[in-house]
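U., I forgot to send this yesterday:
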Amino acid sequence: MGTGMGMMHGPHGHGPGGMGMPGLRGLDATPEESAELAVMFHHFPAIHRSVENLPDGIRTVTGSADPGVMAALTSHVVGMIARVEEGRDPQIFIQSPTLDIFFQRGDRIETIIEMTEACLVVTQTSTDPELVTALQVHAAEVSAMADRGMAAVHEMMMQRGR
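Result:
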């Protein structure tokens, strides 16, 4: 689900598919998807994010003033939402188990994406209480990654005993 970013090299990427970060690869992830993740993890300080927990889901506002980071964010968010709708789990090696329920019950998530040049506003709701909880937990996990990068991933994996 790339946006023409292709193989990322130089300041916004470290080789094809985030090869410098093997945990960003997955069993069903494209090199472009892994490269988008690498851009976001390498440049997490350039990402701003806020989350509002709703009674039936979440509303997130995520963006970056860096055009390369914003392009990676946009492609990643749109691509992952499409994957959830299709039930195509990329099985990224560092992936949170909170995503499992999304791929199992993605047809029960209502998603609205609003895009501006500065940010993505994503509202996701569900009538399934377990999905609502998973949406809120995952939003908090993504916020932690936007705040602390790969350090947050390592902490979450250690908490899960992985």
